[in-house]
Write a structure and sequence with these properties.
This protein is an alpha+beta fold. The protein has helices at about 10-15, 15-25, 30-40, 45-55, 80-95; strands at about 30, 60-65, 70-75. The chain has a 3-stranded antiparallel β-sheet. The mean pLDDT is about 90.
Length: about 100
């Protein structure tokens, strides 16, 4: 399937996972705490959503230290980026459809 082909993705479609993918697609990587603050989920709820994206191969996690604190950095994989873009295109086609 071409990288820009519309493809509805059940993993990405859940509202929180869609927002996570949108944030990650706009940046090379995002720190867990920043993502949590922007999305407004508890640590455990965000971790659950991220686990589904990681299990699907859409998101990578990288641990590191910044300001003497342990941090978790998240990024979309190439596969995740393709899936996200395809899902957005599928949604755009649904919205643009004339219903017939």
């Amino acid at each position: 399937m071409p990288a820009d082909a519309p493809a509805f993705d059940e993993v990405i479609h859940a509202p929180h996972r869609l927002r996570i993918c949108a944030m990650l697609s706009a940046a090379q990587k995002v720190e867990f705490g920043a993502l949590q603050q922007k999305i407004g989920l508890s640590k455990s709820a965000l971790s659950k959503q991220l686990s589904q994206l990681v299990d699907a191969g859409y998101v990578t996690q990288e641990k590191g230290v910044r300001d003497a604190r342990s941090r978790l950095w998240l990024a979309l994989t190439a596969e995740g980026n393709r899936a996200y873009r395809g899902h957005v295109r599928a949604l755009q086609e649904i919205v643009a459809s004339d219903g017939g």
